[in-house]
């Protein structure tokens, strides 16, 4: 009996003594029966049913048994039946087992990166200039327009938690992205129609016709469109980073390095979309009309869908595994009830952790050595009570496994890291508002071209686009050689660098504001609307440090939450990065109000109030934010130095 592999889907079986087998051996590679029975067949990656040809008539015993075995193994492999050819816990877009070598990898993740460029273009093209649209065309007052923009952006990022939750519980990240993109597309269609139709906007006002703020059905149409966009953005932010990161094998050093590269380039792609948004699209909105700006955003998000779908045959999609919030609530309630019933901490975890069943159940979820586990148990004895010593919990619905308790411990461990990044995002919100107003008072000419203040974020965007490849291809390899570790710079070190750079960015912002006000005072232009004789490139200095801080922190946070969270909570945990950004926006409004109230009571004018920004005490406010950032950095060091990694390779 001779076997010849003709193609990935065709196997030729011949009798070894036949004349035909000799001719075939000149063209096709003969395979010995021993090789066929030992190997997980490489052609198992094909989804086309195999064709088996029987050459030289019927087969005779004992060859018939081996032939049946080969055919059975082949068919089993073609159905994804070999464990070592499948990605455990993953399916393809048709809900079939995902196969190694066919699904996942950098090629699959690259489709998510391109889709993110278009999605962020569609979002930031309007968000960066939305305050002008609301005040100029919808006749909102400047304060109301600013509040509406802050609420819109904050809501969009907070809704990322919803997108992450749905990805973990009910749907895959693949489906959540597609649904969210269509929702965002619908919202942009509504905004485009309203911007295009004069009857759907307030009447134009002038010196003789007072301005009337949009209301009634027109206001309803505006906010329905805006918050449909926010819902779509939230769903995409909550699913797309996780979808891309899930394409890599975290059990191999190569897979972990590729995943780290993916997060670097995810931030790079965010910047690519932002660059087009704050330059080309902002110019179109200012010169051709807002209906064209909304139309470009609509086309961008529409194009992202087929590009994302092109990668469908390459994706491996994580199978949803239940509600993480239900697990967290159940463990906390069970721990409280069991604490009331008995004051002695449960020893169930200590007893079960030594058993083979426990080690098998949690080996893929809870990493680390015995000392780390012991320390975690000592610090979280309260949660250990969720596992009752008796076989009967307080209520059948509150029965908790050891794995569930450990998962909740992991979530509680990462929350302090999340909280420490909110102040940095608060600084980002301050610079994205006040810095634009500062630039509007300065000389914004670049040669013969005048740069609109709304395009000022181009500086951090371009710097991130330059720094991201440099970081991935130069800084990280150098750090790996120096530290002799797999990561070079681990997640928490990366986040810490970003937080430290935020301190520098606020200090630079304060110094630049001192210089700007000095120029205004020396020129006698404190109360004038004329441009100051100082170039707006001075503002770029603080943006350079802020862009660096954003790159280090956002990419570090995304990867940290993805790698450290239990696999059943990864989408939700990754969404915390965007929730931190949302809370930073909300916190910025609170800090501004508090500062104005406190400084107004001192008998002087509020720091952030006046008929012109030249009368603001913005330099003092920036020094305050610098001090808060420094305190926040110390707070971060307290938690980061005590953190014990659970994921493989994260601390190597």
TrEMBL record:
What are this entry's molecular-function GO terms?
transmembrane transporter activity
Q: Main location per UniProt?
A: membrane
Q: Which UniProt keywords apply?
A: Membrane, Transmembrane, Transmembrane helix
Kindly give the membrane topology term recorded for this protein: Multi-pass membrane protein
Name the domain of life this protein comes from: Eukaryota
Instruction: List cellular component terms (GO).
Output: membrane
Write down the Pfam families for this protein, in alphabetical order.
PTR2
Q: Where in the cell is it found?
A: Membrane
| Entry's transmembrane regions | 104-124, 145-166, 172-193, 262-284, 290-311, 414-434, 454-474, 495-514, 534-560, 572-595, 621-639
Extract the InterPro entries matched here.
MFS_trans_sf, POT_fam
Q: Which family does it belong to?
A: Belongs to the major facilitator superfamily. Proton-dependent oligopeptide transporter (POT/PTR) (TC 2.A.17) family.
What name appears for this protein in its UniProt entry? Protein NRT1/ PTR FAMILY 4.6
